[in-house]
Amino acid sequence: MLIIAACSVYAQTETYKSGSLLWKISGKNLSKSSYILGTFHLKSGEYLDSIPGAITALQSCEQVVGEVNMSDMTGLQMQMLQAMKMPADTTYKVLYSDEDFQFVNEKVTELIGNGLEQLGMLKPAAIQLTVIARAYMKYYPNINPTNILDIRIQSEATKEQKPVFGLETVDDQIHVLFGIKDLQQQADALLCSMKNLDELMSLVPEIINDYDRGDLNKLYELMRDTEICPSISSEEEADALNKDRNNAWMKKLPEIMKEKSSFIAVGALHLAGKDGLLNLLEKAGYSVEPVNM
Questions:
Q1: Among 69, 106, 120, 144, which residue's Cβ finds the most Cβ atoms within 10 Å?
Q2: pTM of the model
């Protein structure tokens, strides 16, 4: 969600399933219903208690499925930090003209407190994610990174000695974050974000509000119809971030749900739209119903 908020351009013209964050999956060859929840990665773990039916659904399922298994947070962080590092043969002086370097340096310093001289060891995509996360911190000033919504869900399963599975590996997620764009494209995206910072920041309250209302259609349209950086965002990139991952997950989910009733928790944008999991599950023959109780 944070990545797509920075530079995304493609709108959907149809409306799809919306109005809830939690959905019940039944029918086809399932002996017991499973559930899928759209998460927001900066929501605190306590937010789970406010989602209608979420605790009951989680308790009823035999296993939990997330984007990645977060059981080894230290290991995950170490891998991610290593992937964030800029290659030794590249610097921001190479990626930017003097004018652009000075502009990005001033903007990043203003937002984070440190500029490119101090953060030069990080890839542009890592700095961009930090900048966007900082914008959300205005609304979540006391967020505890060890107790975000996705971690709370998996922790609850572990307490009950239920299996926890990841649909992706850490390497898969690293590719999504830092491997889709090359370093120059990342630098261009960071520059674009800094030039359009006010517009990006103005989206944050609306994104949060749409999520809280479970308005997946509005959230999807807002995120993908924002033509902030059309020259450096592509349909292929949008597909790699969302559509391709959803299709890969759909190759795994039927067998996972057939084996055991599952509580599936993935980013909310993966549920929305034509290529979203809700639509794909329905097309695959399952009954998908909102849980609003």
A1: 69
A2: 0.89
